[in-house]
Amino acid sequence: MVGKPFDFDKKDGSYFSVKYTHIDKILKSYLCLLPGKNILDLGIGTGKNSVYLSSHGYNVVGVDYSNKATKFLNDNYPNIKTYNIDIRHFEIEPNKFDLIMSLNVLHFLHKDDVHVIIDDIKYNLCKNGIVYISVFSLDDPKLKFMKNDFFEILDNHICHKLYDDTYVSFFSKNEILELFKDFKTLYISDEYFLDNTHGSPHFHGIIKYIGQKI
Length: 214
Fold this sequence. Notes:
The chain is of the alpha/beta class. About 20% of the residues lie in helices and about 30% in strands. Strand 9 and strand 10 form a beta hairpin.
């Protein structure tokens, strides 16, 4: 493992009071393909998508390094089983999960760790299971912002935060497709979205990928 995990507990407290009642429309359209109802959410946060899935009969396991996030889920959504741990330390049970997702999380790691996690997801996902990830794209404005004295810019669009020994990685669409070349691609996009979850509203460039194990 490279560097320290990003500490979301330092974020504004309002981030940990957001209650989600809806699901990503893209994900919802592919739920019919799932071979079963067991879900793993790596970096679950306060439960976007997972709260909806749990309330609609899915068995959800959530993993997050944030104490505040897992406490929020335990207090409000006890049907979701949570693990308060760095996702790099979490051992995925083989052939248990029909959907494994990690949304807006993997880019807060060095790509070496991302590749290990993706290999772990691919190997342990159920046959015909679905993976859904989203990561920062090369068009994310944050990449240009990081070219200053507080960050060390490494090869392959990896940024090292010198002051806390964490990393931020940026990906191309082709890079994601290559990582999942042995999966059936169901959906991939390269888009912008407005982030209102912390600080002032700001845009991110995001790649979303949904694939099926065949």
